[in-house]
Fold this protein.
Amino acid sequence: MRLSADLEGLDGLVIPGGESTTIGKGIASADLEPAIRAHHEAGRPILGTCAGMIVCDDEHLGLIDATARRNAFGRQLQSFEADLEIEGIGDEPLRAVFIRAPWVERCGSGVEVLSSYEGHPVAIREGSVLAAAFHPELTDDPRFHAIFMAMTTAARERAGEETAR
């Protein structure tokens, strides 16, 4: 995505991992913030993973009432994998890959914590925003992405019902 028009018609938006400062600069240089905000205000889902979680937080785009702490678990050498219990995916733990991962330092009252690791929230949801400190795309387990897909399907159905009125 390089232009604001690229967001038009999307059912959902993923803000991926990477480097949050670089992602923020890219959003600013391409003037994507208004389009991202319009996507959010329309109730269309956004998934932020790792750096994407940081970009969505209240100190950056402000799409979710939470504050993420960069590199909270340590730098590159402290990257790790862990089994997480995540609300809404069943009883079997999800293998999560944490790479220079953030954690959530503060959550607003409307933020649902879906999973924590060592007492720190690492998967949260508020309204149409789902955020994870880990990289769900680096495993073969589709269950975390299924949460996002369900959110996207529900938003599309709501939009269709509103259009039909």
Remarks:
- The chain is about 30% helix and 25% strand.
